Amino acid sequence: MVLKVFFPSCCSSADSGILIGRWISEQNSAVILAVVHFPFIPVQVKQYLGEVQRVTKVSVSVLGSWSNSKQEKEESLSEFLEDLGTIFCHEPWIQISKEGDSKFWSCSVLQKHSKNPQEEEIILVYYDQRKVMLSHLHPPLDTAGPGAEDASKLSAIFDTVARSQVLFMTDRYDEGPIKLTHWQSDGVEASIIVELLKQASVPACMLLTLLLSLHSHVFCRVLKFWPLSFLWSKLSTCEQLGHRLQHLQVISSNKKAQNQNQLMRKANIFVSLLIDVALGILLMSWLYRKNRIGHLADTLIPVADHVAEELQDLLQWLMGAPAGLKMNRALDQVLGRFFLYHIHLWISYIHLLSPFIEMILWYVGLSACLGLTVALCILSDIIALLTFHIYCFYVYGARLYCLKIYGLSSLWRLFRGKKWNVLRQRVDSCSYDLDQLFIGTLLFTILLFLLPTTALYYLVFTLLRLLVVIVQGLIHLLVDLIDSLPLYSLILRLCRSYRLAAGVKFRVLEQQDGKPLRLLMQINPLSYGGVVQTYRLPTYSCYPRDSWASLCKKLFLGELIYPWKHKGDKQN
């Protein structure tokens, strides 16, 4: 049989002593957790292992002996280490020794109480105890049990190291009777800043929870009134604020994370909020420096006038003979004057607000302290307000074009002796008299000859509307990128890739006849694409809700196109 010994690489330079760990009989494997140095009292070692076993629920015992011949000069040490097998009584008894300056190690197994001892092939696997402990490839601590050992051969190894955390909380500076060597034997990993933040996070979370409960109790009732509820559902800024409030509720929740994914989600949300607010403060400091808001307000009015003049020139071009097309003169003049009047109203509206634009921009710039995403959403809403006349043109043209398309389709069914059955939602046969066919022919002819003029206006204003939608879409994509990108996971993948492990791989270190096969177990990290796909945060908006075929169908039929569909944060 093959005996697998998992040996921590941090113990390769430890002083001679005994090996403590867990024996997994189903896999014929031994997981070495630490080395106990001389001098020690066997009774105290047994008592200590009993306490560890009671706390961790892991059957920790003395598995064998460890000899570092480079540091020991007594020849009787090897015989003494063999005699320890009779005191601790573990079968089999593993003996690992380091042969001076040589890179070769010797590993043997003693089976004193076996009637038919068999020579076993030994595989010595080195593993980084710190990376295995923090890789989270093992089952969660609250769900780890006897059933977890059968899930995978390696999961039992990772689970053993993870559940033995109490064993690693003692270092060489402790004044206890037992001295151990493990991954934290030089000092337990800790940070004063982290501990202070943990202590300060409790009152901060309580205060934040109180404020959020007050908000949900007061503001949610206020937003139930019709004008406010309508604005809250239509403005991107309100949607983003609601999304951030959900994030704050997740962070301030006193409920402990049940698994690694929930913990990473909280960390990603926290880092995303910090970076978002930091970028917003940088933007705010840039805006209020060198009177940039005043320059922006002075530039906004001429730009609006220039856009209005371009639209007037476009309408004058459409009221003539655009691209040599023959238009219906009467309908063309009516539509052109109607839209020119709307542009005149728009210019008057802009000049009426011109004395207050700088003050409005000054207060809007303060909202950047809530985050860069909030500032971008406000920019999207400002674009929607400044291009409201284009939206009105698009709605008028789309409704008129849609009315003619549906009228022509209904009259076309009349010529074929068909009609639309509203109750059964299908096309049925129908007989029409001569007067109905005559009136239908006249209406069909009128609508057909007026269609090119209406279609041209609809096409032009649809292209203008799509241009505005594309600009707003790019802003929303940037907001979604900031909201959904798992920044903490990506930083963790860059700095400590073993924390986001996807598996393990083995590398051969030594393979020689008469010597144990030595392997090095390494952690395989997740790829960057896998990190983004696994830990990506949900967002409140997404790409257009319709496919390209459905979008083209809507454009042809003249149905209204909405730029972005809000779906809400449905993930926990």
TrEMBL record:
GO BP term, pick one: GPI anchor biosynthetic process
InterPro entries: PigQ/GPI1
Annotated transmembrane regions: 269-288, 334-353, 360-387, 436-460, 466-491
Transmembrane listed as a keyword: yes
GO annotations of cellular component type: endoplasmic reticulum; membrane
Keywords: Membrane, Transmembrane, Transmembrane helix
Pfam family, one: Gpi1
PANTHER family: PHOSPHATIDYLINOSITOL N-ACETYLGLUCOSAMINYLTRANSFERASE SUBUNIT Q, PHOSPHATIDYLINOSITOL N-ACETYLGLUCOSAMINYLTRANSFERASE SUBUNIT Q-RELATED
Official protein name in the record: Phosphatidylinositol glycan anchor biosynthesis class Q
Native source species: Zonotrichia albicollis (White-throated sparrow)
Lineage: Eukaryota, Metazoa, Chordata, Craniata, Vertebrata
Gene this chain is encoded by: PIGQ
